[in-house]
Design brief:
Layout lengths: L1 H26 L1 H8 L5 H12 L1 H32 L4 H21 L1
Helix pairs in contact: 1-2, 1-3, 3-4, 4-5
């Protein structure tokens, strides 16, 4: 069991990233973008956590990963909307986006 978990730790996430890169080379940037949007690094980590720490711990970790995606999406949306309309460069939208990320993360942390 230990050897299988070690192999998963060392090989699964890199193998998935390589597969996404190869898919992008074969089918283009759009397909690659969709694949990269998948939880290619967090899913293997959560699988390993489930094998080592149990299902309850892995479920809590998965919930945290999903909340992180929500906060990242809030940052991305804020940054893109402000950067398109600002005309003042990238720094002000980035700082406001960080604030939205922090606020979103705090709200989600206390809501769960």
């Amino acid at each position: 069991m230990l050897d299988a978990v070690l192999l998963l730790k060392l090989g699964l996430a890199p193998a998935l990233i390589i597969a996404a890169s190869l898919a992008g080379n074969r089918w283009g940037h759009t397909v690659s973008g969709w694949i990269v949007g998948l939880p290619l690094t967090s899913a293997p980590v959560i699988l390993i956590l489930a094998l080592e720490q149990g299902g309850e711990f892995a479920a809590s970790s998965a919930q945290g990963a999903l909340m992180g995606i929500v906060s990242l999406s809030a940052f991305s949306l804020t940054f893109s909307l402000l950067a398109l309309g600002a005309g003042r460069g990238w720094l002000p939208p980035m700082v406001v986006g960080w604030g939205v990320f922090l606020a979103s993360s705090l709200i989600l942390e206390y809501a769960s």
